[in-house]
Design a protein that fits this description.
By secondary structure, the protein is an alpha+beta fold. Helix content is 32%, strand content 13%. Helix 4 crosses helix 5.
Length: 202
């Protein structure tokens, strides 16, 4: 009588394909966004969430659209699908897609609001660094390619692929409404230095 042998198990590293050294973080909650929710259907301003945020002013409207700060030609909002806590978007008020379409005034205000956003995030959340970026066109990864926006993503040592996940650590995300309120309430005080530096240059 023969004894049954244990089935042979092939190690994953022996399968086809090269390991890229990256760990995966599965985020199925983002499928609503990838599927088109809250994205403009075309290159017009119709149904554009950034245009909706810029269209009106007032505390109630700003809360509903996660607006943190308004300038004359641009605004700062919380990303509805953040890569990290505190992920902000600096958007032109005007519905333009390409960086070259900005006026000098719009370009300068987006740059200033980006500086100020970094100062506020440092004061409130103490990140170790930032990723700043503007994806131009769908092929370049722009989620809402029809309306120009600059990403301001705070980073911490040990986070992974823009996500606040550290091995053996449970992530406790802050509600977007709470993040928006905290950043908005801190904005003027935290950006006083940036504003004064700008005044000295002019």
């Amino acid at each position: 009588m023969t004894t049954p042998r244990d089935p042979e198990v092939t190690a994953a590293r022996e399968f086809a394909g090269d390991a890229d050294g990256l760990q995966r973080l599965w985020t199925p909650h983002r499928m609503a966004y990838i599927g088109g929710e809250a994205k403009p259907a075309d290159s017009t301003s119709h149904h554009c969430p950034f245009c909706a945020a810029a269209s009106e002013r007032g505390e109630e409207h700003d809360r509903a659209h996660l607006v943190v700060k308004r300038g004359q030609n641009a605004l700062v909002i919380c990303n509805l699908y953040p890569y990290n806590s505190g992920h902000l978007l600096v958007c032109s008020n005007r519905h333009v897609a390409d960086y070259t379409e900005l006026t000098t005034v719009e370009r300068d205000e987006i740059a200033l609001l980006t500086q100020q956003a970094m100062a506020v995030l440092r004061a409130v959340m103490g990140p170790h660094g930032f990723n700043l970026g503007m994806n131009q066109g769908e092929v370049a990864g722009a989620g809402i390619a029809a309306h120009l926006h600059q990403h301001v993503v705070p980073r911490w040592s040990g986070d992974a692929n823009f996500f606040p996940i550290v091995a053996q650590t449970k992530a406790v995300p802050q509600l977007l409404a709470d993040t928006r309120r905290l950043l908005a309430d801190t904005w003027d005080q935290a950006t006083a230095t940036v504003s004064s530096n700008e005044s000295e240059k002019s």
